[in-house]
Amino acid sequence: MAWLLMGVVTVVVGVFMALEVRGALDREREFRAAPACASVPVRASGCRWEQEFTVRTADTNRGKRNASPEAELLLPSGESWEVTFRQAGPVVSELAPGEKVVGLIWHGRVVEVRDADGRRQQTSDGPVGWSEDRLGGALACFSFGLPAFVGGVWPLFARGDRRHAKAAVVVRWHGVCLAVAALFTLWAQAANEWPFWAIWAIWGPLALLGLASMTAFVIAALRGDMDDEGPPVPQPDPTAPASGHS
Known about the structure:
Blueprint: H1 2-33, E1 48-59, E2 70-74, E3 80-84, E4 100-106, E5 109-114, E6 120-122, H2 130-157, H3 162-192, H4 198-223
Antiparallel strand pairs: 1-2, 1-4, 2-3, 4-5, 5-6
Helix pairs in contact: 1-2, 2-3, 3-4
C-alpha cells in the first residue's frame, strides 16, 4: 500500500511539473529575444538592462537547511538589492564584499550576475534552465511513480500468488533505477550546459534499457525462474545398510 500511495503522489507531482515545461520554455524564449533597453528603465520592463553593482555581502549558506545562496548588491546610489541563487557556483561562491559585478535586469528583477572575470550565473529569478529542471523532474517522477503504482496495485489483484508478488517487486525497483537514471541525465545536462534536447537524447536510451531489463525480469518471475527452491534435500544411499539391522 505504501508503494501505491508513493506512486500516486509522485505521478501527480510529475504532471504538474510537466505542465510547467511549456511556460518555462516560452519565458526563456522571451528573455533571449528581449532587446537591450535604450535608457535606464524607470519601471519593470521587458527590455534588458545591464547595471553595475557593488557586492555588500555574499553567502552560499552551506549547511543551512532550506537556505539558498544569496548576495546583497548595492547600486551607485546606495540602494540595496537582495538576490538569491539556485546553486553556489560559479559566481556567488567567489564573491567578496566590495567587488564590482554587473547585474542583468529584466522585468524589474536581477536575473543574472556577471563578475569581473566574465563568469555568469542565473539568479533564482533567471528564466534560463527552468524548462530543463521541470522536464528532468517530470521524467524522474513518472519513471518512479508509474512503476511504483503498477507494482503497488499488482499484488492486490493476485493475492497469495508468489510469482506475481515477485514480478511486482521487480517493477517497483526498476522504477527506482529509472528515476535515478533521469536524475543523472538532468545532472549531466546541467553540468555540461547541453541544450534542452540533450535530456531526451540521454534519457531515452537509458529508459529503453531499463524497460527491456524490467520486462525480462518480470517474465522470469512469472515463469518461476526466480523461485527460491531452498537447500537440496539429502537423498538416502540405497547401498548403505539400514539403521537398526545387523
